Amino acid sequence: MMTSVPSFYAPKQRSLVGRVTGALAALLLLGAAPKAHAQTWMVSTNAQIKLGILDKYGQLGPYSATFIVHNERTGKDYLLVKDLSTGQTGVDVLFPTDPSDPNYFKTESGEAAVASPGRYTWECRVKGVKAVGGRFVFPEVANDVTVITR
């Protein structure tokens, strides 16, 4: 018994017409597409300073560390209190912290700290006594944007 299989052979003329039609359709679609514009990048810069304290020999046990950062230009003091539990000998904090963070640097009136350019001094108090301190400068920051064209 013989089984016949249909032929999928198409004449060359039909194949050429299909190719030309496809090419014309592609050109039409490309011509109707919006022209590409140069890409402008969104950019952000965020400066932060890491401050820390460590009970080097672990002799204090649990304690409360009060970080105080003083902005020399505005005269404002920003505070952050961190409670350290048993077995925790030190802590690092970032200044300024995002106000959405439950533990952020703020003035006594609740104003959140910002990374304004200028000179700052800081100290950390443990049991009401200055344990460590220092100073830092926030520089002016700027963003450069590159426009890419083809």
Blueprint of the fold:
Layout: H1 12-32, E1 49-54, E2 63-71, E3 77-84, E4 90-95, E5 118-126, E6 129-138
Antiparallel strand pairs: 1-4, 2-3, 2-5, 5-6
Low-confidence stretches: none
Element pattern in H and E: HEEEEEE
Distance between the termini: 65 Å
Radius of gyration: 33 Å
Structural class: alpha+beta
Number of strands: 6
* Strand order in space, largest sheet: 3-2-5-6
Major sheet details = 4 strands, antiparallel
- What percent of residues are in strands? 25-35%
Shape: elongated
Query: Helix amount, in percent?
Result: 10-25%
- Average per-residue pLDDT, rounded, comes to 82
Give the oligomeric state: single chain
Total number of helical segments? 1
Please provide a written account of the structure.
- There is one protein chain.
- This protein is an alpha+beta fold and 150 residues long.
- The chain contains one helix and six strands; from the N terminus they run H-E-E-E-E-E-E.
- The protein has one helix at 12-32, and strands spanning 49-54, 63-71, 77-84, 90-95, 118-126, 129-138.
- It has a four-stranded antiparallel sheet, with no helix packed on it. It has a two-stranded antiparallel sheet with strand order 1-4.
- The radius of gyration is 33 Å and the shape is elongated.
Which descriptors would you attach to this protein?
150 residues; alpha+beta; 4-stranded antiparallel β-sheet; two-stranded antiparallel sheet; 1 helix; elongated
Quick structural gist:
The chain has 150 residues and is α+β, with helices and mostly antiparallel strands. The protein has one helix at 12-32; strands at residues 49-54, 63-71, 77-84, 90-95, 118-126, 129-138. The model has no long low-confidence stretch (mean pLDDT 82).
